Amino acid sequence: MTKILVTGTAGFIGFHLAKRLMERGDEVVGLDNLNDYYDVNLKKARLKQLTVHKGFKEVNMSLEDRADIERLFAEERFDKVVNLAAQAGVRYSLQNPHAYIDSNIQGFMNILEGCRHNDIQHLVYASSSSVYGANAKMPFSVHHNVDHPLSLYAATKKSNELMAHTYSHLYGIPTTGLRFFTVYGPWGRPDMAMFIFTKAIIEGRSIDVFNHGKMRRDFTYVDDIVEGVVRTMDNTAQPNDEWNGDQPDPGTSKAPYKIYNIGNNNPVELMYLIETIEDAVGKKAEKNMMPIQPGDVPATYADVDDLIKDVGFKPATSIEEGVGKFVEWYKGFYSA
Asked: Which is it for the CA torsion 93, 99, 100, 101, positive or negative?
């Protein structure tokens, strides 16, 4: 039995990942601080699903609490760590920037130190497609340079990748960063477009459609994300012996360090997403067409060739199937 620390288990992806790991027989210690960035009752409902499992231990703790994190690592003796806890959201980073430094920088530093001092076999952590920022070349590849973030959230995620590389280089800790592309599905986050649109359409309220509906996103169903996390976690990061400092590859290293995109490899225009939600709900949306918002990127599109090559997996859930499952869950959970 493998003992795995999963941070953010009251969160959307962490909840689904913890369930999957326990179903295959792993022991999961789930850390979350249940902050009020969005509906705490939804977070508690997710946790309630996890705590019925014998293989789950709940820990209420913040990543930035250095002494608590040190004690947790020393007491539990984890085999592997999956760090999903973070202050999420591009637009919120314009309103509350300090929350991103506390959780995503200081918190991640504490995770790295815990791994360094406790012989962790593999650290897997959530990065984001947001790191591609001002890049225009599509599809986005882990082998492209990503030095022009458009939000503080994106900058903290890029920082996590740099911090992880430093620890892989200095201390030989295998680290794998996963750039997630617009994750959606049952138990999803209320601050995401899928949730906001579905709720508003069902309730008969108008929706704000940014960039006049011309946004394109590589929407990725949560089960595909979890499959990618599990496969990369089981495939411990290795040094790239062919890495060359004269032509440095951003996605690999001479250290045991790796970056992967996990995305559907099939961008969907925002207007088509709305139409798909309308079909699933059985009701038309009233739309307010709006300009693009600060920090937003107009399009995302994941190159997943490395994921396919290294772990034999490519996300494949269609937007129609995924939206149908989300709307079905939403109606059931909220009795809508």
From this structure: positive
Question: Quick check: 10 and 32 in contact, CB under 8 A?
Answer: yes
Provide, rounded to the nearest whole percent, the portion of the chain with pLDDT above 70.
100
Q: At 115, list the tokens.
A: 């791994």
Rounded to whole angstroms, how far apart are CA atoms 234 and 268? Answer: 30
Closest by CA to 120, choosing from 83, 94, 154, is 83
Residue 48: per-residue pLDDT: 97
Residues recognised as catalytic: 153
3-state secondary structure 32-51: ECCCCCCCHHHHHHHHHHHC
Q: Which residue has the tokens 């994300």?
A: 225
Structure-block tokens of residue 233:
């976690």
Examine the pLDDT at 44 and tell me if it is beyond 80: yes
Nearest alpha carbon to residue 217 among 126, 139, 312: 139
* 206 touches 286 (CB < 8 A): yes
Is the distance from CB of 29 to CB of 103 less than 8 angstroms?
no
Q: What pLDDT digit, counting tens, does each position of 133-181 carry?
A: 999 999 999 999 999 999 999 999 999 999 999 999 999 999 999 999 9
